[in-house]
TrEMBL record:
<keyword id="KW-0012">Acyltransferase</keyword>
<feature type="binding site">
    <location>
        <position position="150"/>
    </location>
    <ligand>
        <name>acetyl-CoA</name>
    </ligand>
</feature>
<feature type="site" description="Increases basicity of active site His">
    <location>
        <position position="142"/>
    </location>
</feature>
<dbReference type="Pfam" id="PF00132">
    <property type="entry name" value="Hexapep"/>
</dbReference>
<dbReference type="InterPro" id="IPR011004">
    <property type="entry name" value="Trimer_LpxA-like_sf"/>
</dbReference>
<dbReference type="Pfam" id="PF17836">
    <property type="entry name" value="PglD_N"/>
</dbReference>
<dbReference type="InterPro" id="IPR018357">
    <property type="entry name" value="Hexapep_transf_CS"/>
</dbReference>
<dbReference type="InterPro" id="IPR050179">
    <property type="entry name" value="Trans_hexapeptide_repeat"/>
</dbReference>
<dbReference type="GO" id="GO:0047200">
    <property type="term" value="F:tetrahydrodipicolinate N-acetyltransferase activity"/>
</dbReference>
<dbReference type="InterPro" id="IPR001451">
    <property type="entry name" value="Hexapep"/>
</dbReference>
<dbReference type="InterPro" id="IPR020019">
    <property type="entry name" value="AcTrfase_PglD-like"/>
</dbReference>
<dbReference type="InterPro" id="IPR041561">
    <property type="entry name" value="PglD_N"/>
</dbReference>
<feature type="domain" description="PglD N-terminal">
    <location>
        <begin position="5"/>
        <end position="72"/>
    </location>
</feature>
<feature type="active site" description="Proton acceptor">
    <location>
        <position position="141"/>
    </location>
</feature>
<keyword id="KW-0677">Repeat</keyword>
<feature type="binding site">
    <location>
        <position position="71"/>
    </location>
    <ligand>
        <name>substrate</name>
    </ligand>
</feature>
<comment type="similarity">
    <text>Belongs to the transferase hexapeptide repeat family.</text>
</comment>
């Protein structure tokens, strides 16, 4: 028997994922949201589970596969916490890859990876658990992307870039080849990154300033 598919969250990111699931021919069984879902949402009409506790009490890890529909923003770790807490309970997360993305057959994906429309992921790349490669982003050959990363729309990572855990690479950022970015670093929107970044550092475009 096929497992039921349940979405965590019902905001904008969840709606984009719902659109992708439809294109992939996958049916969503329910969505976890404490708030009522607007009638204009793609998630409208789907069974709503009001709390995480209700999901855990009514659906075992053997019955369901989860989709992490919470968006990822720098300084906010709700998406990561949800993934870790459910994983510790034995739940698995679905990889959602848009049919409009270009992903090499020679790419390794962790669990719960999301690759959005227009993204390109080239041969030899590795994408860690619960990471998002957002719309139109490019991850070139042999990049190693850590867990809980967000490569925001339009960002470009040249070949051989390595990132740690919980890294945010902002919209339209450009990272040259063979750069290393440490855990929890934030690369601001529009940055052109030409040198390594340490753990916890923030880089903004103006004069390539590094902030603690």
């Amino acid at each position: 028997m096929a497992k039921l598919l349940i979405m965590l969250g019902a905001g904008g990111h969840a709606s984009v994922l719902m659109d992708m699931l439809k294109r992939l021919g996958l049916e969503l069984h329910a969505v976890v949201s404490p708030d009522r879902i607007p009638s204009t949402s793609l998630l409208s009409g789907i069974t709503r589970i009001e709390t995480d506790e209700l999901l855990v009490n009514h659906y075992s890890p053997d019955q369901v596969v989860l989709v992490n529909g919470v968006g990822s923003m720098p300084g906010h770790d709700v998406q990561k916490k949800l993934f870790l807490s459910y994983s510790e309970l034995g739940y698995c997360f679905l990889n959602v890859v848009s049919p409009q993305a270009l992903v090499s057959e020679h790419v390794k994906l962790g669990m719960g990876v999301q690759i959005m429309a227009g993204a390109i992921v080239q041969t030899g790349a590795k994408i860690g658990n619960n990471s998002i490669i957002n719309s139109g982003a490019i991850v070139e050959h042999d990049c190693i992307i850590g867990s809980h990363n967000h490569v925001a729309p339009g960002a470009t990572l040249s070949g051989g870039v390595v990132t740690g855990s919980s890294v945010h690479i902002g919209t339209g950022a450009n990272v040259i080849q063979n750069i290393t970015i440490g855990d929890s670093a934030i690369i601001g929107a529009g940055t052109t990154l030409v040198k390594n970044v340490g753990a916890g550092q923030r880089v903004i475009p103006s004069a390539m300033r590094f902030l603690s």
